[in-house]
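lol so apparently i was supposed to do this last week
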Amino acid sequence: MDLEKKVALVTGAARGIGRAIALDLAGQGADIAVNYRSREDAANEVAEKIREMGRQALPVRADVGDEEKVKAMVDRVDGQLGGIDILVNNAALHRGGRVQNIALEDWDLVLNTALKGAFHCCRHIIPIMIERKWGRVINISSFAGLRGFPGDTAYGSAKAGLIGFTKSLAKEVAKKNITVNAVVPGFLKTDMTAPLFNTEDKLKSELTRIPMGRPGEPYEIAELVSFLAFKGSYITGAVIPVDGGMGM
Ligand code: NAP
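anyway here it is w/ NAP bound
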């Protein structure tokens, strides 16, 4: 583990997978900017837990789809926590609907959050990393971006786009000691997937697609993110599944 103090910004860190990532990175010694969009209460609770671990925590509200808000967030984190070394682009939301039915606003919202949001964050944080001569960017993609699901054209496009974004950015900054990787979760029980497991039958049918026969746990995504943040110094442009074997 790199023992120098690191500062991480995790988007959508108030709940679900982002929360687990923020807590794991703090457990590895990083100070954390806890980005949230609406759940101030939950973001404050995560920040409090991080402080109990002896690390600094800064809850920061910003809609990642809004570039001005992202810029203001980055300036605040840079100023108050003293730089940004690790960026985890985790914020996303899901809106389903077959291609002929999905509302245009939903299409835009999904793409603006998961894909353009990551672009906004990188656009303002990569220059800080270049100046610090070190950086780790970890993009949270999805199984839907690799394999696709009916009704997931918007979400699947955003998540597949994030993989293309990861690879091109990885090549842009490879010589600057900045790595950029994508983590690809399979199926986890979080607020986002709640409609998929709100009946026993639905849950059972989801689980038949997973060779390990169980959903993932947020900490199982967080473990890989922390590895890529603190150890994987020669891994870049990689697309790494954490999916209980779904992708086999
Ligand atoms: P979740 O529980 O629904 O949490 C989503 C988080 O994103 C929330 O913290 C939310 O913030 C934040 N967010 C949404 N829109 C935002 C915006 N415009 N600006 C800033 N933050 C925003 O979802 P999750 O299951 O933990 O998903 C986390 C990541 O894993 C996502 O990228 C998702 O696509 C990916 N993933 C999840 C699964 C799964 O099975 N759960 C599978 C594959 C990939 P607020 O709480 O403040 O609103």
